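User: Here's a chain of 309 residues. Predict its fold as tokens.
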Amino acid sequence: MSKALTTKTRKPPLSIRLKKEWNRNSIVYLVLIPVLIHFAIFQVYPFLLSFYLTFMDWKIIGDPVFVGLENWKYFLSDSLAWKAIWNTVKFSIYYIAPTMALGLILALIINSGVRGARFFKGVFFLPVVTSFVIIAGIWGWLFRGTEEGMINFILSFIGIEPQLFLSNSSQALAVLAGLSVFKVAGSTMIYYFAGLQSIDKNLYEAAQMDGASTFRIFWTITFPLLKPIHFYVLITTTIGSFQIFDSAYLLTGGGPNYATTTIVYYLYQQGFNSLNLSYAAVLSYVLFFIILAISLVQRKYLGKDSNIY
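Assistant: Prediction complete.
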């Protein structure tokens, strides 16, 4: 009796189960396998290789030499690396809040039903689809540190002396942040505009019937109901701010006096100019842990009750 029961409940061989599974979901696996291979080659392998390099001394020429934690120890005493991290944090302060605020303001303008809303939407979004090299060139011309610079020309009308801007260590980082705000605000506008479109119009009608002012409607209805958009935009802009590289590379070269040397720009210098790939790998992991920690904190304290994850 027990022998017959055991025979009935015994699982079929693994080969038969795999064959049945393949017959049932073959299309899924045919689509998924190339994706997994691509992910393994271009994501997993570089991630593991960079982690391996953090314990080695490799300058491309010659074989890697195991040095243990020497690269990590050097990072702890590298004042320029810490300055680059601090510059990146300051850049984030200059960049995140203005980008979110400007994107929300532009979305509110378009959503208000102003005449020519489609035209303005295209104008506001134009910097997003324009090459960053072109935008950076225009920005460099606007903020040229001479009397011929457009911003200095405008400031001269109100009695302000010409500013150095990109050549001034106290102004250059803020100017680069302004460039990034100008470049990205259009995409932030689209996110907020989509959020505004999803808000139930009956809520506004009820508030207006109760005599609520426009300002009160915004702070009690619009702004709170955009919380999932706030959270998403905050995460993406934070990650983007810590990955800033192109503006420093194109306009300032990390100067003046390392004032615009961000962590990614410093990583680039170590990896491609100095050919110190092992230390560049350490910097990349430092950047990874910083972004991960900030994202987790934002998710814990600002992502509550959001339905986007």
